[in-house]
Amino acid sequence: MPELPEVEVVRRGLQRGVVGRTVSAVEVRHPRAVRRHVAGAEDLAGLLLGRRVEDACRRGKYLWLPLDSGDALQAHLGMSGQLLVVPAATPVEAHLRVRLAFTDGGAELRFVDQRTFGGIAVVAGGAPPASIAHIAPDPLDPAFDEDAFVHALRRRRTGLKRALLDQRLISGIGNIYADEALWRAGLHYARATETVRRGEALRLLVAVRAVLGEALQAGGTSFDALYVDTEGVGGRFERALAVYGRRGQPCPRCGTPIRREAFMNRSAYSCPRCQPRPRRPHL
DNA sequence: GCTTGCGCCTGAATGC
DNA sequence: TGCATTCAGGCGCAAG
Q1: Concatenated DSSP letters for A234-256?
Q2: CA A204, C1' C15: Å apart?
Q3: Can you give the CATH number for the domain in which A44 is found?
Q4: Is A36 one of the annotated active-site residues of the chain?
Q5: Same-domain pairing of A128 and A15
Q6: Using one digit for the tens of pLDDT, what is the confidence trace for A198-252?
């Protein structure tokens, strides 16, 4: 599942693979992949043709490629999206949704997405574009404001994991790294945010940064073939996961079997001993 | 204004 | 064997 580290790996691949190149052809093979581009596939193609890619940027899980027109090609990988930079002769992938060719005749940019939760659009440019103004800075962004985060967190009336997953508060964190960071910080996912002390919030932030940074070093986490870099290669961080997907296996810190609980129609993994349930949980 | 829950999707895994 | 059900989950939006 692409979260911040996985998206950053893709961004770096785009930086190497498409920045400086000019779009020569656009093929939209599935309308759902461009549903965020409300003017439709033809309009999207018209805004891309002849445009040069100037940069590859990211905030949280969003990517955008500023163009020489002042617009930007924005992408979100959703659950299963891939942005691949592959030779034009590469056989068409089963879930290929959009392909872009370039004037130099080199590798194509392909958006492949099995579950079609992701998509691309051309949006008015900016850093970042207005279309993602509601997304908070991510914790690896130099512009990330720790004090603002701590204050906003403690003003919330919700549970700690819900807050971590809310991209308007802090971006880039999904289900996997939320569980991992909470375990590292020794905090329970249902801890009421209004009871979190400043020191605990800062400890959580340290844990978030550590787990995201280590995952990035490992090239991200791949549970199946769904998350890959721009060359189709998966990450290695799943070997380092302490709790996520490890129900019944020993906690790496204390040996207690990891528990899995239903949470927001998905799951929350934690250590019953390292992360004791608060007296007044906020689920 | 803030928080919560749903629907969107496909394929692998599981159940009968 | 084969069909049906469950699960995975980020996001945007509607509802509370």
Answers
A1: ---GGGG-SSTT-TTSBPTTT-P
A2: 32
A3: 3.20.190.10
A4: no
A5: yes
A6: 999 999 999 999 999 999 999 888 766 678 888 888 888 887 899 999 999 999 9
